[in-house]
Write a structure and sequence with these properties.
Blueprint (H helix, E strand, L loop, with lengths): L5 H17 L7 E2 L2 H4 L16 E3 L4 H14 L3 E4 L16 E4 L6 E5 L4 E5 L4 H8 L4 E2 L12 H7 L6 H4 L6 E7 L5 E5 L10 H5 L8 E8 L1 E2 L3 E9 L2 H13 L6 E6 H11 L8 E9 L1 H16 L5 E4 L3 H12 L1 H8 L1 E4 L2 E2 L5 H15 L3 E6 L4 E2 L1 E5 L6 H18 L18 H4 L2 H14 L13 H8 L2
Parallel strand pairs: 2-4, 3-4
Antiparallel strand pairs: 1-2, 5-6, 6-10, 7-11, 8-9, 8-10, 12-14, 12-15, 13-14, 13-18, 16-20, 17-19, 18-20
Helix pairs in contact: 8-13, 9-12, 13-14
The protein binds flavin-adenine dinucleotide.
The site of flavin-adenine dinucleotide (FAD) has 36 residues, from strand 3, helix 5 and strand 10.
């Protein structure tokens, strides 16, 4: 008897899986036309692409559970996806996987102002969580720059941060509970609308687990009363190292600004051309924001301005109005878009101790010359969360590879000075092989065993987070 051609086998399997998925979801929630699945072939790390087998868009926890049960029975890998803004390739599919998108899970399920929490479906965008409570004077603190688009699900998976996380912490510090669907379709509740759930700290484990352990469908989030007021100050310096030293001194002084953001000259120039925020033409600038009552703001800014003056700033501009504050933030908020207009870039994400900022900024400048590739720095300096943007030309042969090697050297430097590979963007595919730099084999094996427990068949978000060589035998089943 003739064997069917491999393509025919693949097609028959695809048809069977799609038919089973369509039996538990509305037909428009299952996408298998290659012209449409292309929209899901990458996330914001666009250098890497692969169309999935199919895409499903369930509308409830029950539908998510039904999808996972089928994929578990069929041995089909599943890639959870929020809004696809990951910069680490975390939501990129493999050719044999089903993308499980949560973009239809957008409801607000409960708001409790007395106990300061909101419960939402996990596909709701970050900014619209604040949108749901701001009329009552509340907000949700973690504020990634992508907050207009990114989903709470992705924020939880990546333990995302943002400009204002210096004071309020990142997602894990603002997450109270999740509904998690495991790969076999079992639904579990973890944490809830109260501080510190009993039992193991599963919530701490799930937050930042990059879609490796289950699919989050609902989240209970802490909401906070809006501060009385806030005031940013713009500081310009004639060297990045001096700006870095100023950040280290502010942190050392024990004042706690709500944000300390850093931009260097290439970034300042690009954002000025793009947004015209009126930034000074200098080597580096800081935006330092404090909040509280007028008296608290004056007191904190008094200390901060005194420190800044010791570093000979070329500009010190304290905001005097809401319009001026918005203008100070305008350039920073448009920095990524502005850089994207003029160059291909790869956005890195590593953390370092704040005191190492001057050294690391100097080394990045030196490496930029060694590699012959430009670099622009824009990052959350108060947390020591660096985001060097390496500039390259995607159409120039060899440039991407050089850019990756440069990026790997920067991340190794972060680890060397006592920091880590990722502050908020996650490991994804981008840094999976660098995990060996941060962890020794026993550390990695311990992490793999955690996944063994939640996902024994290794079907969830395959080939991410861990070095490929360390997971090959598990992924092969
Ligand atoms: C311009 C720009 C600016 C950015 N600024 C910041 C910033 O300031 N701070 C920051 O932290 N990040 C930032 N990011 C990165 C990105 O926005 C965050 O990582 C964000 O949390 C991703 O959310 P998402 O919904 O787009 O997730 P996706 O990209 O869709 O997925 C991200 C990861 O989450 C997993 N996942 C998605 N949904 C689920 C689910 N339901 N259950 C389990 N796992 C799931 C995916 O498998 C993947 O591993 C930025 C990105 C861009 C493009």
């Amino acid at each position: 008897m003739d064997m069917p051609a491999p393509n025919a086998v693949v097609m028959a399997r695809k048809q069977k899986i799609v038919a089973r998925l369509a039996s538990v979801l509305p037909r428009d929630a299952v996408i298998d036309d290659p012209a449409e699945t292309r929209a899901y072939e990458c996330d914001a790390l666009t250098a890497y692409r692969c169309p999935p087998l199919a895409v499903v868009l369930p509308s409830s926890t029950e539908e998510v559970a039904a999808v996972l049960r089928i994929c578990h029975e069929e041995g089909v890998p599943v890639v959870p996806r929020g809004s696809g803004t990951s910069l680490a390739g975390g939501a990129m599919p493999t050719a044999d996987s089903v993308i499980l998108g949560v973009s239809r899970l957008t409801e607000v399920l409960e708001v409790d102002y007395d106990n300061r929490f909101i419960r939402v479906q996990a596909g709701r965008t970050n900014l619209s969580v604040t949108g749901a409570v701001e009329e009552e004077g509340f907000f949700y603190a973690p504020d990634p720059s992508s907050q207009l688009a990114c989903a709470i699900a992705g924020n939880i998976a990546m333990n995302s941060g943002g400009a204002h996380c210096l004071k309020y912490g990142v997602t894990t510090n603002n997450l109270l509970g999740v509904t998690l669907v495991q790969m076999d379709g079992t639904v579990v509740e973890i944490g809830g609308a109260y501080m510190d759930a009993g039992g193991y700290d599963w919530l701490g484990l799930i937050c930042g687990s990059e879609g490796q352990l289950g699919v989050v469908t609902e989240a209970t989030l802490r909401i906070l009363p809006k501060p009385e007021g806030a005031r940013p100050v713009l500081m310009g310096f004639d060297s990045s190292e001096v700006a870095g030293a100023c950040v280290a001194d502010i942190i050392k002084a024990g004042v706690l600004p709500v944000a300390i953001e850093f931009m260097d000259r290439p970034c300042i120039r690009a954002t000025e051309a793009f947004a015209g925020a009126g930034y000074p033409d200098c080597e580096a600038l800081l935006i330092v924001e404090v909040e509280g009552s007028a008296a608290e703001i004056d007191e904190q800014l008094g200390v901060i301005l005194q420190i800044a003056r010791k570093h000979d700033p070329v500009e010190l501009r304290e905001s005097g109005s809401a319009e001026e504050s918005a203008r100070i933030w305008l350039g920073r908020k448009s920095a990524f878009g502005a850089m994207g207009q003029i160059n291909d870039y790869m956005c890195l994400d590593g953390t370092i101790p704040v005191s190492a900022l001057p050294l690391v900024l100097r080394r990045i400048g030196e490496m930029s010359k060694e590699y012959g590739l430009g670099v622009a720095n824009v990052f959350h300096a108060g947390d020591g969360n660096m985001h060097p943007l390496i500039l390259f030309d995607a159409n120039k042969p060899g440039d991407l590879e050089r850019c990756e090697a440069f990026g790997a050297d920067i991340l190794k430097l972060c680890v060397e000075v006592g920091g880590c590979l990722t502050g908020e963007h996650g490991v994804g595919i981008e840094k999976r092989d660098l995990m060996n730099v941060q962890f020794d084999p026993a550390d990695i094996e311990a992490q793999l065993r955690v996944k063994d427990v939640f996902d024994p068949k290794w079907l969830l978000n395959p080939a991410k987070v861990f070095p490929l060589a360390a997971t090959a035998s598990r992924r092969a089943g």
